[in-house]
Design a protein that fits this description.
With 255 residues, the protein is α/β, with parallel strands linked by helices. It is built from eight helices and seven strands; from the N terminus they run βαβαβαβαβαβαααβ. It has a single domain, classed as Rossmann fold (3-Layer(aba) Sandwich).
Length: 255
């Protein structure tokens, strides 16, 4: 039986690279996004051209009804869910000093990034537990967090806190689900060339040119997708609750 992967925020950027890679790996892909399907038409048409079977579901992970609808439609269309990639997330609308951060901004980022990931994982894990086990594991969950889970940026503190929360969610679910045959991993991207980083491109261009990153270039969405692909394969059967950096070596402490 062909396996199925849900990728939240899978219509563009890092999410789309993951969608496309998992499709090439042989999965049916279910893309959950908050924009109309037509907004991603060019990307979706490329999936069809490459022979990747997909289902697009409009909704936000912060909404309980949308989460349920995503799972229900995925199971109705493809029969099961084998992989969940929690990629959907937002940055603050305005970068503000920590002393000026508003409660509204904090609540918005936490609700989507952390609360949404928490309960999307919960509902998909429950579905996985209902399914017949195919192969050496029942399912794989990959959380896309960020180097911001451990790197301080006082001008976007709500984002850092939300990603640190995802790191703990990874450990909690890995602990809870290991005995059920479901493995949970975290991927921490660094500076990746996406819409989210386009607004601060000059800043990161300068940092890259200064040699801050051992691998001296921008990261690509495909770099993240390759890591997710490996974790979803059967090559990491004795690993759960851990993280992998896709950051050009930025996390290395150097003198």
């Amino acid at each position: 039986m062909k396996k199925t992967a849900i990728i939240t925020g899978g219509g563009r950027g890092i999410g789309y690279a993951i969608t496309r890679q998992l499709g090439k790996d042989g999965y049916n892909v279910v893309i959950m996004g908050r924009s109309p399907e037509e907004d991603y038409r060019e990307n979706l048409d490329l999936l069809t051209k490459e022979g990747i079977e997909y289902l697009y579901i409009r909704g936000g992970i912060e909404n309980a009804m949308d989460r349920q609808e995503c799972v229900d439609q995925a199971v109705e269309r493809f029969g099961r869910i084998d992989v969940l990639v929690n990629n959907a997330g937002v940055a603050p609308k305005v970068r503000s000093d920590l002393l000026e951060m508003t409660e509204e901004s904090f609540d918005r980022v936490m609700e989507i990034n952390t609360k949404g990931t928490m309960f999307m994982t919960q509902i998909v894990a429950k579905q996985m537990l209902k399914q017949e086990m195919i192969g050496p594991k029942r399912g794989t969950i990959v959380n896309i967090s960020s180097i911001s889970a451990v790197v301080s940026s006082p001008n976007r503190g709500e984002y850092c806190i939300s990603k640190a929360g995802i790191s703990m969610l990874t450990k909690l679910y890995a602990d809870r689900l290991a005995k059920e045959g479901i493995l949970v991993h975290e991927v921490r991207p660094g500076v990746i060339d996406t819409d989210m980083t386009s607004k601060v491109r000059e800043k990161y261009d300068a940092l890259i040119q200064s040699g801050l990153f051992p691998i001296n270039r921008w990261g690509k969405p495909e770099d993240v997708a390759a890591a997710v692909s490996a974790l979803c394969s059967d090559k990491f059967l004795y690993t759960t609750g851990d993280h992998i950096y896709v950051d050009g070596g930025f996390h290395i402490q150097r003198l």
